[in-house]
Write a structure and sequence with these properties.
The protein has helices at 11-26, 30-35, 39-55, 65-75, 117-139, 193-197, 264-270, 284-289, 319-322, 331-343, 368-387, 466-470, 495-500, 516-530, 536-541, 575-586, and strands at residues 79-83, 88-91, 145-147, 172-180, 186-191, 200-203, 207-210, 215-222, 228-240, 251-261, 392-400, 403-408, 423-428, 434-457, 475-492, 506-511. It is of the alpha+beta class. The strands form 4 sheets. Strands 11-12-15-14-13-16 form a 6-stranded antiparallel β-barrel. The termini are far apart.
């Protein structure tokens, strides 16, 4: 058995190296930093810095380019986003206000974590356009120097050229011609360190004189060892030979190389048939997957009847609020709605997300109820989204008598507790996606003890001996018991569900939450809204300074309050609960 040698990479060393490199080369050089938005230029810059560190007696080892990029992105937050498909880096310190040169038809695999999409995607698109334009300029032939493009077309034999895929182990070779069609002699210096590190081989002179009208060639080859796309860069630096009449400055021409390795037949099968279009995830589970279930009739014994003196209204979420639940990155739209409520404007079109506002100054008796109602609606909307994270998929449902038993994971898995009277939604797969609402009639606790076995290799050097393994000479087996507590929920479903139930039926499950507390809060706000100005309810929410016009209220404990003197809204309270309520009232 092979053992892992050595510990994981020292993350502290990686972070320190990445930060030191950034401070030494990029932080105070905005022009270089913008050029390093091109991943290829970044690699060359990093390699050059490593070489300088090595000459100064401070070699950097064990830290790859990817390590440095990941540390600058995740640890130091100096990289705002990465566009993998384009090999582009978007720096946090760069605003990229430049012109948007070129069409943006695909910005690749941008990482948009932690930010809203709009502004950031615009910055990424501008950066990608700038890098594309910069690459086109760097690859263009100039000053009479012409260099062949590197495509490795000869490597795609047997009709696979159009497929653009080189087989593993097959060496792709191309002869690259460099022509001087000008009347000026130049010195050519080829920089290929980045290509060599990616297993490209360059044969020929690396530094040579290229006289006017002269042609020279180099051979570039690559033998792929793994499936995937390999990208690199070769830089051709040209320095005109001293001449009094020469007014050309040193310049460079770049050749970007990209080659795909794998099986051409597999590549043909996986080849896209339509242009890529980013698909936004639609939260269809929130509104569709368990929508409109078949419900239990209201006269079933398991249902808890309403017991409030004053009937509770439904207070359903308005459509303009509920629709935001299915919109990606809807935070800005929600803030617009709240802003229009708080400040009394319509549509919130003037809302600026960069503006810092103190809404406590705009909250008053006139808009208090409306503002709090909207906050409750937004909270309930988010609760509906959050509850979907506890969905169960393909779980068994057992039948016991007239009820159905559902196994519910316990609190260790952060699942919501299930109580009698709760409603649970299920979806039956394979039958047209039929949906039903079940009512919890009772719950039971169940403790399960699971035994986990731990295998320890006590003597790794004996693992090569098969007989030692069977004799357990180098293996130590121990075990530990793990106790987990779970719930069994017994459900009552509509009669139509019993007709389609079969043993071993597996279902998708969604839990629900009680809206009673939300409805009572809405009812309190509605009562507050209907009160006249200057009523005690208004003074409690918006208290005034005591004075001749605002005398203190008479304390409730100025008289003895007994249980029979109180009128309880909740008629299901028992005697002990009523006594406790009366004692609390006396203490007020």
């Amino acid at each position: 058995m092979r053992q892992r040698k050595g510990p994981h990479k020292n993350q502290t060393k990686i972070n320190t190296t990445a930060h030191t490199f950034y401070n030494a080369t990029l932080r105070h050089d905005p022009a270089l930093r913008r050029r390093c938005s091109d991943r290829h230029i970044f690699d060359v810059t990093l390699d050059k810095w490593k070489a300088e560190q090595r000459l100064d007696g401070r070699p950097v080892s064990g830290v790859t380019r990817s390590d440095v990029i990941y540390s600058l992105w995740r640890k130091w937050k100096l990289i705002r986003a990465k566009v993998t498909g384009e090999n582009v880096i978007v720096w946090t310190e760069d605003s990229d206000d430049g012109d948007n040169d070129g069409d943006i038809d695909d910005i690749g695999d941008a990482n948009n974590e932690g930010e809203n999409g709009g502004e950031k995607i615009d910055v990424i698109a501008k950066t990608v356009a700038r890098i594309r334009h910069s690459r086109a300029q760097m690859e263009s032939n100039r000053n009479g120097i012409v260099i062949d493009d590197i495509h490795f077309n000869d490597a795609f034999s047997n009709g696979s050229e159009s497929r653009g895929c080189c087989r593993l182990g097959v060496t792709a070779t191309q002869q690259v011609t460099i022509r001087n069609e000008s009347d000026i002699d130049v010195i050519c210096d080829i920089k290929s360190e980045a290509a060599r590190q990616r297993n490209f081989q360059i044969e020929g002179e690396m530094v040579f004189d290229l006289l006017a009208g002269q042609t020279t060639c180099i051979d570039v080859s690559f033998t792929p060892k793994r499936i995937g796309i390999t990208k690199t860069i070769i830089i051709f630096n040209f320095d005109p030979i001293c001449d009094e009449d020469n007014d050309i400055d040193p310049f460079s021409i770049v050749r970007y190389i990209s080659i795909r390795a794998g099986d051409p037949d597999d590549f043909d099968m996986l080849k896209p048939t339509t242009p890529y279009v980013k698909k936004w995830n639609k939260r269809e589970d929130v509104t569709e997957k368990f929508a409109n279930p078949v419900r239990v009739k209201s006269n079933n014994s398991g249902r808890l009847t309403s017991s409030f003196e004053i009937p509770l209204a439904s207070h359903v979420i308005p459509k303009h609020v509920e629709q935001l639940a299915g919109v990606n990155n809807a935070q800005h739209e929600a803030m617009q709605v709240l802003d229009s409520v708080y400040r009394g404007k319509e549509n919130g079109t003037y809302f600026d997300k960069e503006e810092k506002l103190d809404y406590t100054k705009t909250l008053d008796i006139d808009n208090y109820a409306k503002c709090m109602q909207h906050l409750l609606w937004f909270e309930e909307t988010q609760m509906k989204v959050d509850i979907t994270t506890y969905d169960l998929t393909q779980v068994p449902l057992l039948k016991e008598g007239r009820s159905f038993k559902l196994f519910v994971p316990g609190l260790a898995e952060n699942r919501p507790s299930v109580l009698k009277g709760d409603k649970i939604l299920i979806r039956v797969n394979g039958m047209g996606g039929k949906k039903f609402e079940g009512l919890v009639t009772k719950t039971t606790q169940e403790v399960r003890v699971m035994r986990a076995y731990i295998v320890t290799i006590s003597c790794p050097e004996l693992m090569s001996n098969v007989q030692s393994i069977f004799n357990y000479q180098c293996i130590e087996i121990t075990h530990t018991d793990i106790t987990k507590q779970h719930q069994n929920a017994y459900l009552e479903f509509p009669r139509s569900f019993s007709q389609i139930y079969i043993d071993g039926l597996r279902i998708d499950v969604r839990f629900t939450f009680s809206r009673t507390t939300l409805r009572t809060s809405h009812q309190a706000l509605k009562a507050f809204e209907l009160k006249e100005y200057g009523s005690p309810h208004h003074n409690i929410v918006f208290p005034k300074l005591l004075g001749e016009d605002n005398l203190p209220l008479t304390p409730l404990n100025s008289r003895i309050i007994r249980t029979n003197q109180m009128k309880f809204i909740n008629r299901t309270l028992n005697d002990e609960q009523k006594t406790g309520k009366s004692l609390l009232t006396v203490c007020v």
